[in-house]
Design goal:
Length: 717
Amino acid sequence: MDSSALNQLKTDFLKARAERGIAILCSVGVALAYLLLLVLLYLFVDLLVTRGSIPAYSQLTPTKQKEFAEEWDKRSEAERSEAVKRVTSWDTQVKVLIGGDKTPAPTAYEWELRWRAGVYLALKERVSPAAADAYLPEKPLASSEDIPRLGVLGLVVRERNQWTGRLLGPIASLNSWMWRPNSNNDANTKYLTGLFVLAFVISLVRGVMVNTLAYLAAAVTLDIVNRLRRAVFLHTYRLGSLLPRSEEPAQLFTRQAESVGSAVSASLTARFRSPIMVLGLIVLILLTNLWLAVSFLLLAALVWLVGGQFAAHFRREGRIGARQAETSLALMVESLSLLRLVKCFRMERFNQNRVERQLAESGRSGWRKMRGAALAQPLLSAIALIAAVALLYLAARAVLAGEFTVAGLVTMAVALASLLPPIADLFDYRLKLRRGREAAAAISEFLARKGEPSEAPDAEYLPALTTKVEFRGVKLEEPGTGRKLLENVNFTVPAGSRVAIVGTDPAEKRALVELIPRFMDPNAGEIRIEDKNIRWVTHESLRTQVVAVMQNSWMFTDTVVNNIGCGDQQFTMPQIIEAAKLAHAHSFIEQLTHGYETVVGQHGHDLKIGERFRLALARALLRDPSILIIEEPAGSVDEDTLALLDDTLERAAAGRTLIFLANRLSTLQGVDRVFLLREGRLVASGTHDELWENNEHYRRLQMIADSASEVTADDND
């Protein structure tokens, strides 16, 4: 999927640039520090196994002895002469050790002396003359026991012709603590201490970088998630009623923003750390022993192909078995519910045979499901274990043949085990990145939508309604879907009257009344208040005169005071209480635990439907609008509450124009006019009695509503 949306969101919303850069550096540093610790592990294990000793000639394998002989022959006579004088002062023996065409074949002892001379030259070339002198001082040694243990120099000598020896040589020349002997003619103690100090420092630095990375990644992630949520929140208010689905902002605000945050977090951690880890570990494995590394890769490919295919087959079998078992179980449950039918038609034997077949099929399906689930993972583990044993056998043979060291084997094993977490992190990063791209595309599309109608630069002030509200040829399509909600709607509501909107589609009714406070503009036609097109009046004056009490916005989680006053400081406590009394809400508010300071809403004190409605009505009455839009409670309400609601609505009607989205017969009977919407068109209007007598669709609509009310009442009883 295209990453442009995600990259654009990062550019627009990711402001913590410094933190992001430091996090990336820490991510790279964590990977490099781990690789350095593996190198130190190699040196540590080698020191434990060899104790820093340089091998004698007799300890070399025949292959190594042959390599040394060829290496010795390639040296100049001057080099050989200088080195030989370090191991013996006898002229006759010097000539034999230097070698030549006419010299007799050297004895085993002479080969040992020649080996010491070769080691001296190798240390002088690879490390430094001081290191060579530490191995063979100017006075010839009496025996091999006098040769000191020289820390890393033993590894340099054994692997002098490999990359490890060539790399360690210059490092040892700059760090004499790795090989310089102490007064006891031993360098191992200082070398071991140095390795532990290095490991401690690197581990400490790596730990600091890991914690810093986690902290900065969390800070960057929270920063972009909060910025995205703020943008979604603000744009949701810009869109308002233009949203085709009310749950869309909630998904963007929560799940989609989190997905983008997870992708950003993974891009700071796994994106840089894991590739470096994988590449570095593979290079280390290949350099440790190329032949064994290739063998491992071949075995890993074999496990991947063969084991993966077998495991996939058994998982597929398990899924098929699970579906079949579910079907069989559903059929058996159905058979249990046929008791009366079986007895009525005397089909006991038939039903018994049917159930037996279903039980047999369920057993086969269950076995197929269990076999698939039980064999998939164990089979893959068994194949991987066989491959690991084979690799261990090959490695052991290489160690016994002298082609591989124990230190190399341990390091390779740890490196192989260390490959799994970064590979898993890379797969997890790809998954999070894909989800982040999808979420970023959804958020970008949402933020690119045009918001609610803006206010005209020269908008007029709208006074209180004294004449009429008029709809002229209004057409409206649902934003985002294009579904027609209103089609050529024309009607007039005189000031001070009470009207009701009814219809089969709640979306059409809500769309019609939401046009009045200009939450959205019609696609065609106009709405006029006081003979002013509401497109050309200020939002503030329009929404001061038009207040809506809708079911989806009765309450929010806060105190009763804030639910009524909405945090507006211009409303005093006496005014809030007076509005609550007018809406018949004061009595139940006083009975709450903390009165007007009680937290109500979804995450606070739960109120009944009638109480929530009266609280919302108090909020509207506090603002004293001239046009009040009321969506009546759709749920069941007890008789006492209904009486209070009727009285509340009667009080609210004084001096106001009321537009009802009616759900009660008493409201329809009490309004001056009822407008009937059907498929977006205004098909009829009149009083309740007129429509009941003359409109079949209206009668059917009311009968359906009455039936639903009776069912609800029976359920409550």
